[in-house]
Structures are given as C-alpha cells and as structure tokens.
Design goal:
Elements (H helix, E strand, L loop, with lengths): L4 E2 L33 H12 L21 E3 L7 H5 L14 H16 L12 H8 L2 H20 L2 E2 L7 H4 L4 E2 L1 H15 L14 E2 L4 H16 L9 H16 L19 E5 L3 E2 L1 H6 L18 E3 L1 H4 L10 E4 L2 E4 L15 H6 E2 L4 E2 L2 E2 L22 E2 L17 E2 L2 E5 H16 L13 H11 L10 H15 L6 H8 L2 H4 L2 E11 L2 E11 L13 H6 L11
Parallel strand pairs: 1-5
Antiparallel strand pairs: 2-8, 3-4, 6-16, 7-15, 9-10, 11-14, 12-13, 17-18
Helix pairs in contact: 1-3, 3-5, 5-7, 5-8, 7-8, 8-9, 8-13, 9-13, 13-14, 13-15, 14-15
C-alpha cells in the first residue's frame, strides 16, 4: 500500500488594502505571471496556495474558537474581540469575523483556472516524469472549481446574498459587482459540484505522489449536500418547503450510497486518514492550541500577557447536552444533578456519560497527562479567570494533543489537522432532511430507502449510544438537534446550526458554569450558576456586510436586515 503524503499548505500572510482584495500576488511570490505556469512544481504551488484559504477554527476569532459565541463555550479573555458578538457591540463597523478575506481565495482560484487553461508543458514531453505530472494535473482545474464554490458557500452562510465573481476582476469590476441571491449561489454550488464530481478521483492513493488533503469526488458530493441543507433550513426557507428538504435528502443519500466513507468509532480529530474523514485541512506542528487551552499548570510558565486568558471553555449548557451512556438526559438543576437513569450517580456525575463527553470536555476528576484534574474550589486547577482559570468549571478536551509538552529541555510539538467534513454529517443531514420533508421519523419509500431514525441511530451506535426511540416529529427533531450538538461540538457547527434553525433567542442568552466544592475526600457538591447573560437579536442570524465594503461598492447594498 502506498503511503499517503500530506499536501503541503502554504500560508500566505496577506494584508487587505484600500482596493479590497485585488492587490495581492496569487502566485504567492513564486515567479512572474509570465513563466510561473511553465513549471510543474510552481504551478502545483499556486494551486496549493488556493487550498490555504480553507477556513479552520483552532481559534479563528482573536484566539477564540467560534463556539465561544455560542452557548457551547466561553472565552477566557473578557476583552477578547469575540465578546463583541456576545455583548451586543457587533456591527457593520465592528465586524469581528467578517471573513471578507475569503475573496482572496476566490480570486486566487479564478486566476489559477484562467492561467492553467492556457499552460503549455509540452516542452517536457520527453522528461520521464512528464506522464506522472499530467496524471496529477488533470484534476487541478476541478479542484480549483470546488475550492471556489466552497469559499462561496462559506461567505453565503455568513452573509446570505453575496458577490460571486466568476473571473479575476479588475478594480472597477470588484467595486461594481452586484450581489447574487442566496438561493442562486446555492444552485451554482450544486451545479459546479455535479459537474466536477465525476472528474475527480475517489481517493489519491492511486494517483502519483499519493497525497491526501486534496479535493475528491466525495467532497464535491458532500459540499452539494451541505449547500442544499442550508438552502432547506428555516433561515433561508421560511415556508419550510418540503421539496427543498427532499433535494437535501437526495444529495445526502447519494453520498451514503457511494460507499466512499464509513463511520469510525475512534477519535477523528487530528486523524485525516480516518475512513470517516472526507476532507481535512493539513497543518504543521504547533503548540499554540495547547498553550491557550491546557489547564494553566501544564504550560510550564509559557503564557504571558493576554495569552494567560486565551482559552476556550465548555459551558454547563453543553455538558447538560450529553446523556448518560444508557440514553437518559442529565441536567444540573438548583437542587443538584437530575437524571431518570437508575444507574446515574449524582456523586459521580461525569461517569458513565455518552462516550463523546470524555473526548470533548475535560472535567473535575479526569486523568490528564499523568495527573488528576482538580477544578473544585482550592484544587490545583482552580484559579481566577484573570490568571488562566476556567470561567465555567470545565476545560476543553476536543482537538487537544495531550502529548504536547512545554518542558524546555524536552518540548513536544504536534500537528493539528482541522476536519472540514466527515461522513457523520452526511447521516445527520439525511436524518434532518427526511423528517422535515415527510414529518415522520420512520418514513421510507422506493426513492428514500432509509428512514431518518435509521440515519440518526447509525451515528449514535457508532458513538456507543442506544437508539433514539421517540416517535413524534417534534420530539425526534429535538433529539436530532441534540445529536448535531454533541457529535460535532467544537467542530464549528453549533454557531451556524443555531442560525439556520433560528433558535438563537431561545438558546443564546444565559451561559452557565459549575462551582464545585469539596465536601470530603472525593465527595463534592455542584452548583450551577449564570456566568454570563448575553444579548441576542435575530439580525445576528446573518453577518453585517462590512461598512468599508459598502463604501467601496454601492452594489453590495442593501445592508443585511437589522444592521
């Protein structure tokens, strides 16, 4: 079996300037435009530069994971920029996470497609590597096209209607291009995915150089499914038109029946070779994520200044979403821990929970780096927030590489690979689409051979959880939404799901933590408390268009509603 090589991603530091996203070098400083496409390696690097714009969230907003602007997490730095999303200071003039730089990626993709179409490598026909190069390069235009529509999707989920340049624009064109309606953007994404998927390989294992981390047929199918899910969701489908949900179900079903991927009971984070992973963004070695998120005593005095508080901390809201291993809900009430599970022990509330809990949250009593986490008052990991302590009574576990070490005599760095899409998302998309389309969790027919319940329970079984047995549509949807939450916690889903479901007003105002007091030995009392009261307005379902961009291009008006 060939060894898969990780595609090398070039991270270009590109600064926005007054003429928007136009004034930068799409070749990333390789060679002049006149000859960069005369060399195979340089041509490959130009495409690799397009890959570098794939978004990830190891602290995308000033060091905070985006879930710190959802009910799943809190950011330790009370003055961090993400707090503007929580305290009502977010605006078109203070955009926080505008993602407008995604247009750099779109422009780079457009430039690559145009230049590559006229590239001539015939002078190398006698080179023994020529056919190998051609075998690799035949996929390049289709990779660039899917990357471009992926960037369109990322912008559209933030802004709704967006400018959608399909060619490399000059300054005049960029400053006059009009917005394309959201539904039309999604339709274009679907059409491009349909056109490119048959031209892309299922895997690069049998392609020269055997790279992983590149766009495949499966990711094109997955992106189509994701676009149709968002198009069908209430935010963009207020009438809840069942036909849109059927299209979403069909796209998910196509990927299910492709047999390209399978669920993986092992931890998928940082494992791009998992059979469940459809696309991962590859990164080099780093200690930054652990520096911000390890309990303070494990950073060996490495934090200083603002770094001290730059951690992402799970909330009690999220902890309450994880059931017992037997499928019963657990909540921390004013009276203490409550669960109908006869095996639940309120004195050991974190034991025998959904196995995904231990992969997501680091809590009091957990073993970590050969030690026991002590978050109770006066414990080794209890500290005020200003000194790096947890504001919620929990630390982050998801994506943490426990072997990372800050010992100056024997430091250990690790790679952190961001999972862009994995197969479990396809199954939950199918489950959601089917129950919304047909109103019955058990509905099947000749066109849709699997039920919503089947798809949901596939994901739960893979996690070691019992089947969902509720029968009504509303109860099933509640269970399904909870499954989205626990399965994809800290994988940049909750923030967006809250918006596409339009449930912000009901979920995003009260952020809870836990205070733990040692009663005696290993006996503790637990008190739920409100850590933060946040502001929510339904305008937040979409981002504000940056006012600076509206000044440059009046055709981007009108501003999104409420901003």
């Amino acid at each position: 079996m060939k060894t898969l090589k990780i595609i090398a991603t070039a991270y270009a530091a590109i600064s926005a300037v007054s003429c928007s996203y136009l004034e930068f070098d799409e070749t990333n400083g390789l060679r002049s435009y006149d000859d960069v496409y005369s060399y195979f390696d340089e041509t490959t690097q130009v495409l690799t530069n397009v890959y570098s714009y794939i978004p990830q969230d190891f602290g995308a907003i000033g060091g905070a994971m985006r879930d710190c602007a959802s009910d799943d997490a809190e950011f330790g730095d009370t003055g961090g920029s993400i707090q503007y999303m929580n305290n009502g200071s977010w605006s078109a003039l203070n955009t926080v996470d505008d993602a407008w730089s995604m247009y750099y990626g779109i422009r780079a993709a457009n430039e690559f497609m145009k230049s590559f179409a006229s590239a001539d490598f015939s002078k190398y026909e006698r080179d023994p590597e020529y056919q190998t190069w051609m075998d690799r390069m035949r996929y390049y235009p289709y990779e660039a096209r899917i990357l471009r529509v992926f960037f369109f999707f990322e912008l559209a989920k933030r802004y709704g209607d967006i400018a959608m340049p399909l060619e490399k624009l000059d300054i005049e064109g960029a400053n006059t291009i009009a917005k394309t309606p959201f539904d039309d953007v999604m339709e274009y994404i679907v059409s491009e995915c349909d056109a490119c998927a048959p031209e892309l390989p299922d895997t690069y294992r049998n392609v020269a150089n055997a790279e992983t981390g590149r766009i495949t047929r499966g990711f094109a199918m997955a992106l189509k499914s994701k676009a149709l899910l968002y198009a069908a969701s209430e935010l963009h489908n207020p009438s809840m038109d069942a036909e849109k949900w059927k299209r979403s179900a069909s796209a998910a079903l196509d990927l299910i029946e492709s047999d390209l991927y399978s669920l993986d009971p092992a931890d998928k984070c940082n494992n791009p070779l998992s059979p469940e992973v459809v696309l991962a963004r590859q990164n080099g070695e780093s200690t930054t994520f652990e520096l911000y998120n390890f309990p303070i005593r494990f950073t060996e005095g490495q934090k200083s200044g603002s770094q001290t508080t730059m951690g992402t901390f799970p909330t009690q809201n999220l902890v309450d979403a994880f059931q017992t291993r037997n499928g019963y809900s657990v909540t921390l009430e004013p009276s203490g821990w409550v669960s109908d599970d006869p095996e639940f022990n309120p004195a050991r509330p974190y034991l025998n929970r959904d196995p995904r809990f231990a992969r997501t949250v680091l809590c009091n009593g957990d073993s970590f780096k050969g030690s026991v986490i002590a978050l109770y008052a006066g414990g080794r990991d209890d500290a005020v927030v200003a000194d790096g302590g947890s504001p919620t009574g929990y630390f982050l576990r998801k994506y943490i590489q426990e072997t990372t070490d800050f010992d100056p005599d024997s430091p250990v760095n690790n790679r952190h690979h961001w999972i862009v899409y994995r197969y479990a998302e396809t199954l939950l998309t199918y489950a959601e689409s089917m129950v919304e389309a047909f109103g019955n969790p058990d509905y099947t027919d000749g066109e849709y051979p699997y039920s919503a319940r089947w798809a949901l329970n596939q994901v739960r079984a893979n996690a070691g959880m019992p089947d969902v047995t509720v029968s009504g549509k509303d109860e099933f949807i509640a269970a399904l939404r909870n499954e989205w939450r626990v399965e994809f916690a800290f994988e940049d889903h909750r923030f967006w799901d809250v918006r596409r479901w339009k449930i912000g007003a009901d979920t995003q105002t009260e952020i809870y933590g836990v205070k733990i007091t040692q009663v005696s030995g290993s006996t503790y009392s637990y008190e739920r408390f409100v850590y933060e009261t946040r502001k929510w307005n339904d305008r937040m379902n979409l981002y504000p268009i940056p006012q600076t961009e509206l000044y440059k291009n009046a055709n981007l008006a009108p501003q999104n509603s409420g901003w």
